[in-house]
Amino acid sequence: MKRYLLEPFERMPYFTLIGFMQMAGVEGNDVQRARELLSRWKQGGHIITLKRGVYMPRRFFEFHRNQAAFTPAVSTILLPQSYVSLEYVLQRAGVLTEVTYPVSAVTTKNTRTIQNDLGTFVFHHIQPAFYTGFSQDSFHGIIYHLASVSKALFDYLYLRPLPRPARTRDLNLAEDLRLNLDDWPGEAREAFAGFVESSGSEKMRYIFDNLRRNVWQT
User: Fold this and answer.
1) Rounded to 5 degrees, what are φ and ψ at 126?
2) What average pLDDT does the segment 39-50 reach?
3) pLDDT band at 113, cuts 50/70/90?
4) What is the tally of structural domains in the chain?
5) Whole-angstrom Cα distance, residue 186 to residue 50?
6) For the residues 138-155, what does the mean pLDDT come to?
7) In this structure, are 103 and 131 located in the same domain?
8) CATH number where 43 lies
């Protein structure tokens, strides 16, 4: 199966169909031949399809899959104009503890879901004014963005529908949503308050008031 053609890619985090054709010397009008070759490599377990025309060498996956930055980097490969947030960040921070969630990210582009052999990646649309509150880092040359825990909480609550019963003063919203927020430090609460204030959202002001009243009493 001409496995030697794969060797230059095995330490890369990912490569594209076009990149493979260029490096392997496959003529531009022979895309089908390149696809068939990559399909055989996938069936043989040598590569993983991340999305159409984008692949990860199995060797890279095996060596790096347990590293903390691996999943955020994969999310960025799938949709570069995004940052990882919502359930993924909250679960890693211990705010959500009970179930396993898809990898969740935020984008100013359309909402979409991408499924591959590495899992389910959900990209939620948010308006450009709220596309903030994340840090930048790199993983094997991939620049990825990760929301702070405070921004992840804002995104999670802002994008989540608020049922009518939740608008009663008697409801403990954190308890109802099973959010572990009791031990949040003051700076994290202040950062969340800043996102709420800058959003101008009445819904988020209500939510912040509910959290202060029921969880963050001072």
Assistant:
1) -140, 150
2) 92
3) very high
4) 2
5) 40
6) 98
7) yes
8) 1.10.10.10
Q: Check whether 23 has a pLDDT greater than 80.
A: no
pLDDT tens across 156-174, in order? 999 998 866 666 667 888 9
Expressed as residue numbers, the domain containing 37 is 3-63
- b/e map of 149-179 (b: 16 or more CB within 10 Å)? bbbbbbbbbbbeeeeeebeeeeeebbeeeeb
